[in-house]
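lol forgot to send this yesterday, sorry. struct tokens for the thing we talked abt
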């Protein structure tokens, strides 16, 4: 009997130990669960921060500051930085031109000598006034073409009228055919088509004639003086469209005004 009682007591004690251990495990599990519930998950953390964030914006500048103003100021900058790209190029070019009265006082006597030499077909006399570096450019119509116009040097101009070579001077208005002429023939058709030495109107840095051709001499030539000898139209049949003019273009070189362009102008289609 004693042995049976002893076995029963041992069994009861073992059960009690197992029960107590199980209770301890339950308590620890509940504690960990409660602690885990108190920690924010990554999603909860992001959701809690997002409402406090403000949308990011680049600072707005007026183009005068260094922070992003360079691109915003292109085309609208009032400081003049855009002048080289065309915003103020025309204005700057106009500012360098002499007034008609100032131009007349400077160039009238020299232009008279040049137009007289042209009227006499005196290539040697004309060459004395030709730009020694740039030469003289011949333009058959008002638009100056850097690609098509013929340029004679100072030395070549001396024998201009004796030169029997044929040159391509540009293209005829209306047909588009090539203008292939000797210098002498070009003179008759696209230089001295009227007695320009005695023209009824003379303009200095002011255009007296206008046609359908674009006018670009003041852009092509560098701060020039342009002298225009103008004959208005006289034939009623053409309603005044038979006008003609000759322009002499001068640029300053080492203190002297030298001939750089001879432009013939007339009504074009």
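and heres what i got for the seq, position by position
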């Amino acid at each position: 009997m004693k042995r049976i009682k002893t076995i029963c007591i041992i069994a009861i004690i073992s059960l009690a130990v197992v029960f107590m251990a199980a209770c301890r495990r339950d308590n620890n599990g509940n504690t960990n669960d409660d602690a885990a519930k108190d920690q924010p998950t990554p999603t909860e953390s992001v959701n809690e921060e997002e409402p406090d964030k403000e949308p990011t914006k680049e600072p707005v500048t007026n183009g005068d500051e260094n922070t992003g103003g360079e691109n915003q100021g292109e085309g609208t900058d009032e400081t003049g930085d855009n002048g080289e790209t065309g915003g103020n190029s025309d204005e700057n070019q106009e500012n360098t031109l002499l007034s008609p009265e100032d131009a007349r006082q400077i160039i009238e006597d020299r232009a008279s000598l040049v137009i007289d030499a042209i009227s006499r077909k005196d290539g040697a006399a004309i060459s004395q006034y030709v730009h020694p570096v740039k030469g003289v450019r011949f333009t058959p119509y008002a638009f100056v073409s850097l690609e098509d116009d013929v340029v004679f040097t100072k030395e070549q101009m001396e024998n201009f009228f004796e030169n029997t070579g044929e040159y391509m001077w540009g293209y005829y208005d209306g047909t588009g055919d090539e203008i292939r002429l000797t210098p002498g023939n070009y003179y008759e058709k696209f230089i001295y088509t009227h007695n320009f030495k005695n023209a009824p109107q003379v303009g200095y840095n002011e255009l007296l004639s206008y046609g359908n051709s674009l006018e670009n001499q003041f852009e092509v030539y560098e701060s020039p003086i342009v002298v225009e000898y103008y004959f208005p139209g006289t034939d009623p049949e053409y309603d005044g469209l038979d006008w003609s003019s000759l322009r002499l273009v001068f640029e300053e070189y080492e203190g002297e005004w030298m001939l750089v362009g001879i432009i013939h102008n007339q009504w074009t289609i």
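The first strand starts at residue 136 and ends at 139. anyway ping me if u want another try
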